[in-house]
Amino acid sequence: MAREIGRGETINLRASRKQKAIINRAAEVLGRSRSEFMLDKPHASNPKLRRLLQPRAPWEE
After folding, report:
1. Which tens digit of pLDDT belongs to each residue from 9-24?
2. pTM
């Protein structure tokens, strides 16, 4: 099965200026575009991130 590579649909989200600046800086440090950075999966060996993501969202309870 062929997989389409390239740009697809646009997804918008709300963020504060500070949040956007942090995301932009992180992407820049890694040498990636903002989109590439946002879509990249986190490293599984990050215990702080794992703890952050463990609690269930209020709407999932």
Report:
1. 888 889 999 999 999 9
2. 0.56
Residue given tokens 């879509």 in the structure block: 39
6: left (phi over 0), alpha (psi -120 to 50) or beta: left
**What is each CA distance from 20 to 2, 26, 40, 55, 61, in whole angstroms?**
34, 10, 16, 24, 30
pLDDT reported for residue 51: 79
CA pair distance 3, 7, nearest whole angstrom: 12
C-alpha 27/C-alpha 7 separation (Å) is 18
Cα–Cα distance between 36 and 27 in angstroms, integer?
8
Q: Where are the domains of the chain?
A: 17-55
Residues 6+ apart with CB under 8 A from 39: none
